[in-house]
Design a protein that fits this description.
Order of helices and strands: EHEHHEHEHEHHEHEHEHH
Distance between the termini: 22 Å
Helix content: 40-55%
CATH class: Alpha Beta
Number of domains: 1
Shape: globular
CATH superfamily: Aldolase class I
Strand content: 15-25%
Mean pLDDT: 95
Strand order of the largest sheet: 1-2-3-4-5-6-7-8
Bound molecules: cytidine-5'-monophosphate
Structural class: alpha/beta
CATH topology: TIM Barrel
Number of strands: 8
Length: about 230
Amino acid sequence: MKDPRIIVALDCQEEKEALVLMAKLDPSLCRLKIGKELFTATGPQLVEKLMRHGFEIFLDLKFHDIPNTVGRACIAAARLGVWMLNVHALGGSKMLSAARDAIPAGQTKLIAVTLLTSMGPRDLREIGINQTPEQIVQHLALLALDCGLDGVVCSALEAKQLRQLITDKFDLITPGIRPIDSTMDDQQRVMTPRQAIENGSDYLVIGRPITQADDPLLVLRRLTEEINNQRSGA
Ligand code: C5P
């Protein structure tokens, strides 16, 4: 069975735009990520429509609440039949365990966001945390692993550090990917798909380099080839 490594971020405002983009992509080469903006605008109907076209969905809603509420939200999300969903590791072990208990392992992948990459050392101090972002990321990734989650979202730099500590069975999902010839947009620290896979990332979240391209399918094919070559050691 195919397991495409690219997750295209559908950072659209409305359903029409998302469907136009979807029609330019191929479900055998990518999965689709729906975040808070699009889900809030369109609801579960769009998730169902995209799935009917053969796409597997990463529902990126980053649940963070009391354990009972997060558990119930995870049940509702998993019922949609999404491939992957996520919660905030900062919600702590009780919340992570409630999420895990709500979704049987092997059904929908349950992953955690560790620390948002928008949070730097100053932002952490501001909320009373005196550890470095790297220490927090490592700590929260190990917590997610202990609570039985299937993986974490992390930058390609963090992937290198985490892969040395954690088994291959724990998925590392990495945004901030830029092909060698593309612009950075608003991303600060970027890596190519090849570097990210080399660092131990399993799935790459890629938005604008694909969604804003003149020919999204061509870019998707090229990036898939780059990843496959890296994985086969070519
Ligand atoms: O267009 P671009 O490739 O930068 O999109 C990256 C996607 O990954 C966006 O949906 C963004 O919200 C998400 N993301 C990120 N950095 C994180 C977590 C998520 O860029 N740390």
